[in-house]
Design a protein that fits this description.
The protein is an alpha/beta fold and 302 residues long. The chain is built from twelve helices and ten strands. Strands 1-2-10-7-8-9 form a six-stranded mixed sheet, with helices on both faces. A four-stranded parallel sheet has the order 5-4-3-6. Strand 4, helix 5 and strand 5 form a beta-alpha-beta unit. The termini are far apart. 44% of the residues are buried.
């Protein structure tokens, strides 16, 4: 009997990711220690939460004999890019169902061009169709219309039960290392799993990068599906999205450039910059008691 390929052997990830302490007067003056959980170093093409969430799904897809993956995302989706890279590395065909049929006739932006270069076939759908993808019948129709029948379906952002269990390992790597572990949130899957993996007495803090205030209910739903109910302590800081997903106003751009220059870190703008900005603002406002050890999960690179 032929055994499916070993995803870890083929992709060669490097967990656990390193923990780096930095000195920054914006934290030092308030008695807060800042650690960076360098999950951006866990894999060169599937960094951070992309590896944590995709790897369990890739194993499931290959164990079940699927030869392809189909997933969902917007025009600047890091998840689409990571899935395309995984498909190239594993020899799996990939299809990306992209929000916004108005994009179909335009030149591809850098993110979608990277997906296409990695072999992903892009299928653009209207925003109204995209919003209904959680409905089983609509999902089946979308997958069929994209010519992806038989492919393993990975949800938007990679957030499902398998992904949460993968992200729980991130929490376990941080047990005893920090009082508060903070991460930027898109679909909420990383936070939901991270919180479940932390030890009692630790708290996960999520910084949503999208406006709308919908994430708390989504996280509760994800944890119920993955763990049978609430798991771990977590809170959200919802006022740091800077206008919405992929919005990087001049003030945030200047902050990210300065932080990167101070600490020799290439700061990813859509997620990581908003996370670090939020932590500096919350620290200045006294949100963390003197003596707090704060860990920021660096989920990706520019």
């Amino acid at each position: 009997m032929k055994h499916p390929p070993n995803v870890d052997v083929l992709l060669q990830p490097r967990p656990p990711s390193p923990l780096q302490e930095i000195r920054d007067d914006r934290f030092d003056r308030h008695g807060v220690r800042l650690l960076l959980k360098r999950d951006d170093l866990v894999h060169p093409e599937l960094p951070g939460n992309k590896w944590r969430k995709l790897a369990p799904n890739l194993r499931a897809a290959m164990d079940a004999g699927h030869d392809g993956l189909v997933t969902f995302g917007g025009a600047y989706s890091n998840h689409l890019r990571a899935t395309a890279a995984a498909g190239r590395l594993l020899g799996l065909r990939t299809v990306g169902i992209v929000r916004g049929d108005e994009l179909a006739g335009r030149p591809l932006n850098g993110s979608l061009a990277r997906c296409a270069a990695d072999g992903m076939r892009l299928h653009f759908v209207s925003r109204s169709e995209y919003r209904r993808k959680a409905e089983p019948q609509e999902l089946a129709r979308l997958v069929d219309s994209a010519g992806a029948g038989g492919a393993y379906v990975v949800p938007e952002g990679g957030s499902n039960t398998l992904a949460l269990r993968g992200c729980a390992e991130l929490g376990r790597e941080l047990r005893g290392a920090a009082d508060v572990v903070a991460v930027a949130c898109g679909t909420g899957g990383t936070l939901a799993g991270l919180a479940a993996g932390l030890a009692p007495g630790q708290r996960a803090l999520g910084v949503p990068v999208l406006a709308g205030g919908f994430l708390a209910a989504e996280i509760r739903s994800l944890q119920a599906a993955a763990f049978g109910g609430p798991a771990g302590a977590w809170t959200l800081a919802e006022d740091f999205h800077h206008g919405g997903y992929a919005r990087v106003p001049a003030e945030l751009e200047a902050f990210a450039a300065d932080f990167g220059s101070r600490h020799g870190l290439a700061v990813e703008r859509i997620y990581v910059a908003k996370l670090l900005w939020a932590l500096t603002q919350l620290t200045a406002a006294g949100a963390f008691p003197h003596g707090t050890v704060l860990a920021a999960v660096i989920t990706g690179r520019p």
